[in-house]
Amino acid sequence: MSDRRGPRAVREVPEAFQSPHAAAAFSLITFGLAFATPAIRSIIGWPGLIGALVVLVVLGIGILIARRDAIEWHGLLPISILIFIGWCGLSAFWTEYQWVTASSVLYQAAFAFLGITIVLTRDLIQIVRSVGTVLRFLLVVSFGVEILSGLILDVPFRFLGVDGALALGGPIQGIFGTRNMLGFVALIAIVTFVIEWRTRSITRGLFIFSAILGGAALLFSGSPVTWLVVTVLLFATLALYGLRKAKPDVRLRLQWALLGLTVVGAVATYFARVRVINLLNVGSEFEYRYSLWIQMWQLIPVHPLEGWGWAGFWRTGIPPFANIDFALSQGHSTGLNAFLDVYLQVGLVGLLAFVALIGLAFVRSWLLASNRRVVTYTWPALVLVVVIATSAAESFALLDAGWLLLVVCAANASQGQSWRRRLRSKDALVPQPPLE
Fold this sequence. Notes:
By secondary structure, this protein is mostly helical. The chain is globular and about 50 Å long. The chain has a domain at 72-118 and 224-417. It is built from 17 helices and no strands. It is found in: Membrane. It is a multi-pass membrane protein. InterPro entries: O-antigen_ligase-rel_domated, WaaL-like. It comes from Okibacterium fritillariae.
């Protein structure tokens, strides 16, 4: 009897990994882990988070092996992702904290692998639905924690960073650690909920509930950084809507006009930055960020090309982060600017690789969203708008959920706009010589 059950059990294992339900569950758990990392680190610490991440990587490997014959690999993985992660890994050879760099690169590569696995095993609409389901659940949990802390018990939950300020109108942070992170999640959630509704993936009632949930999270977060991103997102949404409605023969001219308008707007905003900050009443936050960035700029010239070495999250006990913390007398885990953070850690070469990664991902996603009629293609483009705009005041694009979203959007855009795929298509059209 045992001899018969053994081979059958062996056959059932790959069949389970091949199941669409396994891929769906893997996607949900991965996005849930990425967005909930602040709460997970607060409750079970880094060992628990790393253990969960390792389990997901092993499951991802099993899913890819089981589905290897059905997966289209050609032209999927953007080379820009490999170059950026590879350069971060190479920084271990010249940094003073090799063990930090090695562990941080592995942490970064693990999330990148999970993102690639999701893109390989799930369609774009399925990815959107997974993100929507996860963010609905996490936002409900966040408001539940805030209600329990601020209204029912009237006690702050220090281990989660929850101050219980909901009764005062905020700011709140839910289970996401900071109000800026809650605002970032709320914006991603609102974009996702709208796409779900437009594709009829959810009912009208569920969409209304989701929209109210995301809007309330955005409002109560009280994040001035997020409101700046909202402005950029609204502009991008209107521009994308106009491009999708335009005729194909005028769309290219509109793209160039939009690019010129964006450059002019960015330059004007830079020169009027003091007035913009005063209008948005974000002076105190900007002053702190400005002081931090000045300290970073002073340390960048020490290693301008190669950087100090990749660390991801800052370790306050090692240079250069210890010097910055000492100068500001305040602890923090990132540089509050993804581009400066990369510049400090992996130098000019790493910054160029990161800009190329983000630039290629955005251009490809934007072109797909402009030219494809299916509304689902607008999700990666708008998500990248939020990620890139937020990266000017936070380092979300380098870590956890922000990094996972960047990889997912980059890989998805590569599927539709990869130059390697086009080369392969041309090769397929070339007549093959007859066999002798």
